[in-house]
Prior knowledge:
- The structure is a single chain.
- The chain is an alpha/beta fold.
- The protein has helices at about 10-25, 60-70, 135, 150-160, 180-190, 285-304, and strands spanning about 5-10, 30, 45, 55, 75, 80-85, 90-95, 100-105, 110-115, 130, 145-150, 165-170, 195, 200-205, 210-215, 225, 230-235, 235-240, 270.
- Helix content is about 25%, strand content about 30%.
- Strands 1, 2, 5, 6, 7, 8 and 19 form a 7-stranded mixed sheet that branches. The chain has a 5-stranded parallel sheet with strand order 10-17-11-12-13. Strands 14-15-16 form a 3-stranded antiparallel sheet, with no helix packed on it.
- A hairpin with a 2-residue loop joins strand 7 (about 90-95) and strand 8 (about 100-105).
- It is elongated.
Amino acid sequence: MPEKLIIIGAGPAGLTAALYAGRAFLEPLVFVGPSFGGQIATTTDVENFPGFPSGLQGPELAALMREQAEKFGARMVEESIVKVDFSQRPFRLWSESGEHEALAVIIATGATPRKLGVPGEDAFVGRGVSYCATCDGFFFRDKEIIVVGGGDSAFQEGLFLTKFGRRVRIVHRRDEFRANPTLQRRAMENPKIEFIKSAVVERILGDGKVTEVQLRSTKTGEQWTTPVDGVFIFIGHEPNTQLFKGQLAMTEEGYLVVDQRLHTSVPGVFAAGEVHDNWFKQAITSAGFGCMAAMEAEKYLSSL
């Protein structure tokens, strides 16, 4: 017998969808994928998730969401979906262990950090280049750190990195930052944080590990190098939707196209979170989308 509902992904969207689907007695099968908890699991202090006035750690929040979903019958599988076929019903999906069938699917695969695409970036990943301050900040105690980006993530991670680094410089290609005013105020009041505006990283240099970066002014074209031990990159994300190309409608940027009730271009396939949300990008909005997708999936299944 095919599964009633398969959920792909276990970040805030997927876990909330699993909770709501479980409470609707759909016994969802959840494929956790390579990164349980999604991006929230790489965040330290989560201060803006309702119900936790003192804040909590990102991995702790993800673990609590999983526990609650499993309490209501969600089944977690520590595998990734590697292939799908939405052209027939039941839908067919393949994981590392074999083939699965489902009457409905919720896609909650999230997004992946975007790379700079400059020389030295790939060569020094894990040796000074990082996309996760929570994962790697500890290794840069009393070191020189550069954070690339100007949005909320860059400022959040930059503030976190001040716990370890001797100095944190935030490099942004424009004159003005996009981060919310509260984060900007905190960063500007932090004596360890400095700002390099209207500049981009042209090259990451080192010998076995990162030792310096080459910067270029976006106004004058002037180039210069500066010593640095760690380069943390937070310049946006790419939706994890490559698996669904040719199967579902997407935007030019690769985000899944959904209607106001999170239906994709294939009836019975729904999307939740940053696979379609290129605007809000918050744990709480992803959780809300997960709730909506599960409710719509339940209605769809009831109509069959």
